[in-house]
Amino acid sequence: MLDLFFQQLINGLSLGALYALIAVGYTVVYGIVQLINFAHGEIFMVGAFGAFATWMLLGQPTDWGVSASLLILLPLMLLGGIVVSVTVALLTERFAYRPLRNAPRLAPLITAIGVSVFLQEFVRLFYGRIPGFPDAKSAIPFPSVAGISGEIVRIGSVTIQMPALFTIVALAISTLFLWFFVNRSKTGRAMVATSQDPDTARLMGINVDKVIVAAFAVGAGLAAIAGVAHGLNYGNIDFRMGFLAGLKAFTAAVLGGIGNINGAVVGGLVLGVVEAMATTFIPGQFGSSAWKDVWAFALLILVLVFRPQGLLGAKVVDRA
Amino acid sequence: MNTRLFKLAGVAVVAASLALTGCGSRTEPAASGSAGGATKVAKIGVIAPLSGDLSALGLGIRNSVDLAIRQANESGAIPGWKLELAAEDDEAKPDTGKNAATKLASDDAVVGVVGTLNSSVAQSVIPVLDSAKIVQVSPANTNPTLTKGADFLTAPKRPNANYFRTCTTDAVQGPFAAQYLLGEGVKKVATIHDKKSYGQGLVSEFSKAFTAGGGTIVAAETINPDDKNFSAVISKVQGGAPEAVYYGGEYPQAGPLSKQMKAAGLKVPVMGGDGIFSGEFIKLGGTDGDLATSVGAPVDTLESAKPFLEGYKAAGFAEGYEAYGAYSYDAANAIINALKVSLKDAADAKSAREATITAMASVSFDGATGKVAFDEFGDSVSRVLTVYAVTNGAWAAKKTGELK
Amino acid sequence: MRVIISDETKVRFRYPARAVGIVGAVLMIVSIFLPWSYGSGALDDVGFYGAPSPLQFAFVVLPVLILLLLAIPLVGKQRLGQWAKTVAWNTSAKTASLATLATVLIGLAAIAIELKGLVNIDVGGFTALVGALLAAVATPFLPDSPEPTLARVKSPTWLQILGIVLMMAGVLFAAAFALNQTDAGAFLTFVAFLVGVVLVLRQLGVMAWIGIAGANNNRVLVLAAFATAFAFPFTQNGSDANMSIASQVLIFAAAALGLNIVVGLVGLLDLGYIAFLGAGAFTAAILSESAFSTLDFHPPFIVVVLISGTVASLLGLLIGAPTLRVSGDYLAIVTLAFGEIFRITMNNLDGNDGPNLTNGSNGIPGIPDLEFLGFNFGDAHVIFGVDIGRFANYYWLMLLVIALIIVVFMNLNYSRIGRGWVAIREDELAAEAMGVNTFALKLLAFAGGAFLAGVAGAVKAHHDVSVTPDQYVFLESAFLLAAVVLGGMGTVVGVLIGATILKLLPEKLRFFSDYRLLLFGLLMVVMMQFRPEGIVADERRQMEFHDEDEELAEEIEEELISHHAHLNPERRGFDL
């Protein structure tokens, strides 16, 4: 039983790390423009497809050795994913959200739903039209990266898959990077200032437009890393993968306290562990894996009722 | 004064148009009928997802039916009649499927329908076609309640006399897989299914036969059809140390499941039904040693499958025939065989609808999937199945046999 | 983008422009007696000499309008008298010409696509094109007419009622004609034509006149609208194909109207609304006489409807009570999560992962038709010599439900409760400070909207024969929301139009079905950028979205004043 507990803890942490990487994007954008970027799940999906496209453009290498894969292939795929994600995120920001910055709050939210549906369909319909690319109407097998895909590490009776480890390490590095970015860089500090008081920040000479762009870009970059991690963990990517992942990541962001970057990380990990544990330790019929999404969403509702500011405290709680 | 002006203008315009209309009349251009006497037209409908993410399967169904119709017209299978295809999209949605069925039912030339892909869509489509007395043959529905009613196990009762299917139900595939695994010396199996009617039915039939044969089910789990991450389930299954995992569901989940299982150190074969018997399964992570059952003898060994395989290639369809192409081809040919009887003395297509349903009961021929005939519930009587195994990255036939 | 032609040019060219325009109109009228295409497979068979197809007959209305608008003023200002200013002759002719050009272009494009190649356009098609181009190029050179005052012409009550009845007859005819177009090109051409006619009528001031006539004879308008809707099955000649779509549109519209209370009136974004429709449908299915029903309790349908509505509204309370306190964006996502919880739960209650209530993903099929007082909804019957099929029966039932919903909606909208809702939407804090019980009112909206959806769901269960969880996915919620947003939040007519567009177009335009969702997503984005208030704008809401637009504010104010002046003729203050 204890073995199973540790095994599910590892499973939960790797799933949670994925949620956390996506959740940061929700939280950063929300902290600054108070917009739930409903299309962020799709940014994650687009990142995975971007990484796949990079692999295609490299000539579909399948036989690179471990060191070449880890030092060249993986960084290039990550870079490709990030470039695509960030580009798409900035385009939606510029053309869909920015014109609505002073509109009633319903307008950007509905726009976000539209963007989300549009991006999904765009990938589904047009990805396969790129010469040589596989049709994206059904799932596409994600390339394996030597040294990560299929490798496992055993600690006692607990099996840790390398892709899961990759996700957790990627989250750790990203969190570290975020900390430096927010606390040490000029743009990062401008972001904090804007999220605390946009008007005063503007008076202090901060270019709010630039700050918003930076927020979208940071979120999209992390989402792209999550996209690659998803591909490595689960072996394939498809145009619908962003919907549920996005919803879960949003739940994670709320769980940790929306607007709070550390909260998003903690919330993601907690959510992942809760999901994994629920399938093992809830007895009877309701412990089936089919209920795990229900438990995750029920957690969201419970948090909103009893601790709307989230685990680590939100910047904004109630904005009508 | 002003009103008079309006009246005048109005009258002038109306008079002018009437005068001009009188000049011509709408007559049909000379009849373009072929071969002497008038050829009457009967239509075979298709209801399948022609758009959306299941469209690959749906288009395969449509093309295969189209092929059967073309071949029947070329060979003059039904003298005095020309068959036409009427394909409708159901988007894999019950609502849209019902609209499609209503549309086909209101077309007097439609005498039979091949479809649907999804059992949930069939539930909405069958009643509409039944009330119009149009025969429906599904190449893909495996839900046993469609032919045997709510109490299909204890008190089977056929709900709709117009409904037939060429694919087999779960009651045949599950036990066949169980017998195969027992024969290979596998005694401990874990089952996983996706909660859809197909997967759930397969697993429950499999489990019954497997335990009856002396095997043990060490774990029974379910997943959500839209899941991507199976690590929690795999960890649970792993505890029972199964020698194989029987999966009830389709390839989009089965492929990744197999891959993630092996990555997690559970290196045992995944076995499933015809839902995973697809090249996509291997692409998405199915590995050597994974097994699948499928109906009929292997298509390339059957003499009766040649017209289908060769015809499909020759017809130059843009899409492949996919998993249900051969079943659809057989379904269309079953209808055509019934039409040979019912259309012979019929004055028009509509009046032959009921006779077609009656004639279906005695249809019997060798099709692309083997022998095609129906029992008293409308289910395919074919009980010949083949076990395939992934060998060197492709499906290869392992064992063909008949379920006793 | 708009080409501005100076007033001087317009005055200089006014005579040649009028002449060219008339020539264009005449050419187009002549063209319908010429074949437009070589083959017979395009539009509704337009390849004949001297024998226009029904579509061409309909089309000719526009050129005849242009001709009349251009020719009648030729008699001179004196003889036109007051009518010179009442009708916007020139401007309307310009609108009509542009609309005609659009219609002709769509029609010809359809011919070219359906018969594969531009060569298939015959002499009639080219004549029409030349005529349309002439008219469209010439009419912008006419001097602008002043704002039409047709709406302000005093008209006797009988004429107003006649106008309403004629308009409804037109709507009925157009709907029947459009639905019977099996050819996608013909359907599109006709829709373009209809949009053109509506635009011209608006330009002429006829729409405003009808609006005032409707306001003066409110009961007549409502009755006429329902009589029209009621008469629709008689235009279908016993065919069920369109009735099946029409009844689905009504079910969808009923749910959208329920959502409209929540989103349109109170301003709470609910992204899981389809769950309430599903709750009603599942409740009705489980309580039905279906062999697959899992409960042994089968009350009559009237009771089932009430239970379904109650179950749905209880769910509404369940989800609303905890989350309405943290208003705003959270609510949107929580409702979305709730929609997913509902779907997954329905999937899981199959006796395997939970108690057996819904048969899991198989759902509950074989739901029998409704039966009222011995009348079975599944039976076809004959009324006035027209076959009335199964779906027409359900259509009428849904019409009743919709009527009920509209009555409730309108009464709420103009009541104390409705004003409270709007106050919450505009500024919740201020509303609360003014003593509005915001929490109770929001809960009421949530539960009330859910009740309506539940009732619609109960009918849907019997209409659809089978209920499965995969009918109630997030995308359907998005579609409901889109119907409300597209049509116009907070309005009844708008939501009805939105629901019709979203359900009807995919059925009629199968060829783009693969791009349907792509366009849907794009439409939502574009709509929010350029016309967030929807096709039919609620006046209050329009102000909200364009609060910096002074001109619009003045325009609306003026409209309201003239409107009220008409409604209260005894107050002569604003008689213009």
Describe the structure.
The complex is a heterotrimer of chains A (320), B (404) and C (576). Chain A is mainly alpha-helical and 320 residues long. Helix content of chain A is 69%, strand content 4%. Chain B is built from 13 helices and 14 strands. In chain B, the strands form 3 sheets. In chain B, strands 7-6-8-9-10-13-14 form a 7-stranded mixed β-sheet, sandwiched between helices. In chain B, strands 2-1-3-4-5 form a 5-stranded parallel β-sheet, sandwiched between helices. Chain B has a two-stranded antiparallel sheet with strand order 11-12. In chain B, strand 1, helix 2 and strand 2 form a beta-alpha-beta unit. In chain C, a hairpin with a 2-residue loop joins strand 1 and strand 2. Chain C has a two-stranded antiparallel sheet with strand order 1-2. A two-stranded antiparallel ribbon of chain C has the order 3-4. Chain C folds into 3 domains: 227 residues, no CATH class; 300 residues, no CATH class; 31 residues. Chains B and C meet through helix 1, helix 3 and helix 4 of B and helix 4, helix 13 and helix 16 of C.
Short description, anyone?
The complex is a heterotrimer of chains A (320), B (404) and C (576). Chain A is 69% helix and 4% strand.
SSE layout and pairings?
The complex is a heterotrimer of chains A (320), B (404) and C (576).
Chain A: H1 2-33, H2 40-57, H3 66-97, H4 106-126, E1 140-141, E2 152-155, E3 158-161, H5 162-184, H6 186-196, H7 198-203, H8 208-234, E4 236-237, H9 241-256, H10 261-281, H11 292-306
Chain B: H1 2-21, E1 40-48, H2 55-75, E2 81-89, H3 94-105, E3 110-115, H4 119-131, E4 135-138, H5 145-148, E5 163-165, H6 170-183, E6 188-193, H7 197-212, E7 216-222, H8 231-238, E8 244-248, H9 251-263, E9 270-272, H10 279-283, E10 291-295, H11 306-315, H12 325-342, H13 353-360, E11 364-367, E12 370-373, E13 384-391, E14 394-402
Parallel strand pairs in B: 1-2, 1-3, 3-4, 4-5, 6-7, 6-8, 8-9, 9-10
Antiparallel strand pairs in B: 10-13, 11-12, 13-14
Helix pairs in contact in B: 2-11, 2-12, 3-4, 6-7, 12-13
Chain C: H1 7-12, H2 14-31, H3 54-59, H4 61-71, H5 77-80, H6 83-86, H7 89-114, H8 123-138, H9 157-179, H10 184-204, H11 206-216, H12 218-231, H13 241-265, H14 274-286, H15 301-323, H16 329-348, E1 371-372, E2 375-376, E3 381-383, E4 386-388, H17 390-413, H18 416-426, H19 428-433, H20 438-464, H21 474-487, H22 492-508, H23 516-530, H24 539-545, H25 550-567
Antiparallel strand pairs in C: 1-2, 3-4
